[in-house]
Amino acid sequence: MILIGGAQRSGTTLLQTLLANALNAPLLPEAHIFCDILVAYNRAKKFGHKTRFFYATDADLSFFFQSVAERHIADIIARTGATSALVLKDPNLIQVLDEASALFPQCIRIVCLRDPRDIAASFVQIGQRQPREGKPGKYGKRDIGFIAKKVLAAYSPWMNSTQSANALVIRYEDVASEPRGALQALARGAGLELSLDRIDNPVWLAADARHDTSWITEFEGQKPSPEGIGSFTRVLHGDEVALVQQICEPIMKRFGYRPVQSPLTKFRAKFRDRLMRHFKAERAR
Asked: Which residues contact 273 (CB under 8 A, 6 or more apart)?
């Protein structure tokens, strides 16, 4: 069982599609039921002072959720006829990878990583594709602060977890630009045998089973493309880029996404420096 999580718009759908093709595994929508079971397990542990009235020990609690999760997985296998592998993805799985490992120690856990600025650009593009009727939402209004905080909130629990090192990390940039090399590296780390010939023209899940229409990009349904890499330079304004870089600095610094300075940011920095020099000169007089 392979579990894929990450921030929304980080390439989880693309990776799941390629892996399912390479493993001849069933193509499935987001595993929201499985993810919700793990989220409930996480919440039950957090509120142990209440949970103990229903399950006296941690072992009892774990056994309950394991039995529920295993029943759900058995239902998926029976319905799809899966014989060798299940590739389950939901971006929110990144929040509960520890719980997944506790209930299914043999599962392979993968985190999709992507430049936070490109993720923000993708959300803005969702807003541009959404119907214009009614009041625009956060994406339509280009609420970059909200979007950047959403990205940071997605990755922070995993980054701060003591178990984070046990998950495999794959970058969207690698999958989109060099899918064969990225999957070969992933296969070595996970001990998988992949048939990579199938990824040149992968079969995709039906669009209506993947996302709402406004969430579907021009890249979905096609072979991997590097065109989405660096899209923030075309979609975001200078101040928006600077705000994402400021809010998502922990992600960018840890994973080597280098910040850029917009012309306006550079101008402000020069103006601030000149102003400080002026104040120092005045005080010296």
From this structure: none
Structure tokens at 77: 């296998």
How crowded is residue 70: how many other Cβ atoms within 10 Å of its Cβ? 12
The Cα 16–Cα 8 span in angstroms is 13
pLDDT of 237: 96
* Domain boundaries, given as residue ranges, for the chain: 2-284
148-207 per-position pLDDT tens digit: 999 999 999 999 887 666 799 999 999 999 999 999 999 999 999 999 998 888 999 987
Residues in the chain, pLDDT under 70: 133, 163-165, 262-274, 276, 278, 282, 285
Please tell me the predicted confidence (pLDDT) of residue 271: 58
Q: How many CB atoms lie within 10 A of CB 99?
A: 23
The answer to whether the beta carbons of residues 11 and 172 sit under 8 Å apart is: yes
Q: What is the pLDDT of residue 20?
A: 96
d(C-alpha 39, C-alpha 166), whole Å: 19
Q: Give start and end residues of each alpha helix (H) in the chain.
A: 12-23, 32-46, 48-51, 58-80, 97-103, 116-129, 144-160, 172-177, 179-190, 207-210, 232-235, 238-247, 249-255, 263-284
Three-class secondary structure of residue 88 per DSSP: strand
Helix (H) or strand (E) holding 110: strand 108-113
pTM passes above 0.70 = yes
Nearest CA-CA partner of 94 in 210, 6, 160: 6
* Cβ atoms of residues 252 and 116 within 8 Å: yes
CATH number of 2-284: 3.40.50.300
Instruction: Compute the distance between CA of residue 155 and CA of residue 193 in angstroms, rounded to an integer.
Output: 28
